[in-house]
Design the sequence.
């Protein structure tokens, strides 16, 4: 066999050995842009909940100048016009988180020019909620400085008889559950709706962000993200992310059924090679390969934490 042909056969063999080679999007790792670091940091700086947080460890720490450090593992869309996204997340219970620490996983729909942004997911944040329970949350901002969590201020409009209300606790049985969240711009009223369920086929409306709230997203959003994150104070040990397992294990935390939503409310796959992967602290947390697959696009993320800077 001529040398070149033998080499080609070898290359084909190696490629076929890699189970992700044909179906993963080519993802490159970037430094998380500064503007994005803001929206995994989601204190409602300007809402009524400010009152309850004054005197909190977090508020005192920021006064004393102790730095609160965000850590994140994420995928971000390429810049294009989007009408929404859907994803299913693993949800966990960590009843012993300390004040000053938080763990979250969420989806984000945003406009990069105006910094309009809608977020929903789960979080454990003793400083914010006064307990170490897992809470379902929503958040919005129009400038990445002033924002609002849950129903702390006017903005998100909950629907009557919704199965869940922003801020409610989620109670993962035996420490684990799945939630599916869908944020999309409704064709009927133009508002940005949030649907919730425990699996992708049984979603129901939670409420909506009125289009009048979001000048920068009158027609569409241009930035979609799926994010795992943690916070801790500088010098303190950062908590685990996801469920603490590295993404190379299939027991790690995941985002599943990851899709964009079109103008008719239907899901569609991210184009190959269009997503950017992020890891803020590789030694503590990792973002797994994004897998485009028929049974649902997914990636694993997380890690044991333990970073102090
Ligand atoms: C933030 O505070 C300013 C000044 O009090 C107020 O005018 C503005 O409406 C507030 N924004 C939100 C989102 O609550
Ligand atoms: C969550 O989803 C995974 C993957 O589809 C499934 O294997 C698991 O049984 C689900 N867990 C629960 C508690 O529903």
Sequence:
């Amino acid at each position: 066999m001529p040398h070149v042909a033998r080499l080609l056969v070898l290359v084909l063999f190696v490629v076929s050995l890699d189970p992700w080679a044909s179906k993963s999007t080519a993802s490159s790792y970037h430094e998380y842009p500064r503007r994005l670091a803001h929206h995994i940091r989601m204190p409602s700086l300007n809402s009524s909940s400010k009152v309850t947080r004054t005197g909190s460890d977090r508020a005192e720490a920021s006064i004393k100048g102790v730095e609160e450090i965000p850590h994140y593992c994420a995928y971000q869309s390429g810049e294009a016009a989007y009408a929404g996204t859907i994803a299913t997340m693993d949800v966990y219970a960590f009843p012993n988180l300390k004040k000053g620490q938080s763990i979250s996983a969420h989806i984000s729909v945003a406009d990069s020019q105006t910094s309009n942004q809608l977020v929903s997911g789960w979080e454990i944040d003793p400083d914010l909620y006064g307990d170490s329970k897992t809470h379902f949350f929503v958040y919005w901002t129009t400038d990445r400085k002033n924002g609002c969590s849950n129903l702390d201020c006017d903005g998100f409009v909950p629907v009557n008889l919704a199965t869940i209300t922003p801020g409610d606790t989620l109670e993962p049985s035996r420490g684990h559950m799945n939630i599916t969240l869908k944020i999309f711009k409704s064709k009927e009223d133009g508002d940005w709706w949030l649907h919730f369920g425990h699996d992708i086929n049984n979603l129901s409306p939670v409420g909506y962000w009125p289009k009048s709230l979001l000048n920068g997203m009158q027609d569409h959003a241009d930035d979609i993200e799926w994010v795992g994150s943690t916070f801790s104070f500088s010098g303190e040990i950062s908590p685990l992310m996801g469920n603490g397992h590295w993404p190379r294990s299939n027991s790690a935390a995941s985002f599943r059924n990851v899709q964009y939503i079109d103008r008719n409310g239907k899901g569609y796959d991210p184009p190959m090679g269009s997503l950017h992967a992020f890891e803020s602290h590789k030694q503590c947390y990792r973002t797994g390969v994004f897998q485009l697959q028929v049974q649902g696009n997914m990636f694993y993320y997380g890690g044991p934490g333990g970073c102090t800077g």
User: Anything to note?
Assistant: Residues 46-47, 146, 148, 153 surround 2-acetamido-2-deoxy-beta-D-glucopyranose (ligand 1) (CB under 6 Å). Confidence is low (pLDDT under 50) at residues 4-56. The two ends are 55 Å apart (CA to CA).
